Amino acid sequence: MNPSIDLEAAKAAFFASGGQLVILEGFTYRPLPQRKHPEPTPKRRRGPDPVQKGNRQERAKAKADMVAKFAATMTCSQASKVLGISQGSLWDMAKRNGFSFVPATPGKHTPKPGDEERDAEMAEKIKALRDEGLTRNKVCQSLKTGHTTVTRLIKKFGIDFPSRKAGGAHESSQA
Predict the structure, then answer these.
(1) What SS3 state is found at 107?
(2) What distance in Å separates the CA atoms of residue 3 and residue 1, rounded to the nearest whole number?
(3) How far apart are CA 64 and CA 88, in angstroms?
(4) For 47, which DSSP code?
(5) Which intervals of the chain are annotated as region Disordered (predicted)?
(6) Tens digits of per-residue pLDDT, 15-42?
(7) Do the Cβ atoms of 156 and 115 come closer than 8 Å?
(8) Per the count of CB atoms within 10 A, which of 14, 44, 99, 107 is most buried?
């Protein structure tokens, strides 16, 4: 038979036996409840509370004055180790506030006891090799020392040792 005719016959039998039609409620959207996060707890500071007087500029100026006192007697590296502040911060502070640190010994040569005598002997050897007609490079090779040391000794003892031959490097090729 026809399915729609069968359905109508079943509905009629249901209502005839006393059945009632119940309309169910459909789906309704309800959003999720709002999340409840706990309140953040403030971080506790370790150690004693800092004593802060004045505003930020006044504290920075006081710190710069303290660093300037150290700068009068120390190098930047030494002040950095004592104060626990990076060297870059100290240099920036010095530049902003117009003070400078004690200069460190430049280069690797730091005078030691007995250096004067050794330097004088080397200067005599340099003069002798210069008089033989050797170039600076040949002098460095024969003394087994570096160019910087030879240049330092030439300046220190006022040795007349030109870095090039008079008349230029191509003198022999033009003749």
Answers:
(1) coil
(2) 6
(3) 14
(4) S
(5) 29-62, 100-119
(6) 899 888 888 888 899 999 999 998 988 8
(7) no
(8) 99
Which structure tokens are listed for 118?
């050794």
Q: How far apart are CA 31 and CA 55, in angstroms?
A: 50
Question: Is the separation of the CB atoms in 126 and 159 below 8 Å?
Answer: yes
Residue type, 96: R
Structure-token match 């506030």, residue found: 97
Buried b vs exposed e over 108-144: b needs ≥16 C-beta within 10 Å?
A: eeeeeeeeeeebeebbeebbebbeeebebeebbeeee
165 token code pair: 């031959």
Sign of the alpha-carbon torsion through 82, 86, 89, 91: positive
Q: Where do the domains of the chain lie?
A: 56-97, 115-165
For residue range 67-125, list pLDDT tens digits in order: 999 999 999 999 999 989 999 999 999 999 999 998 887 666 666 788 889 999 999 99
Spatial separation of the C-alpha atoms in residues 90 and 92, rounded to whole Å: 5
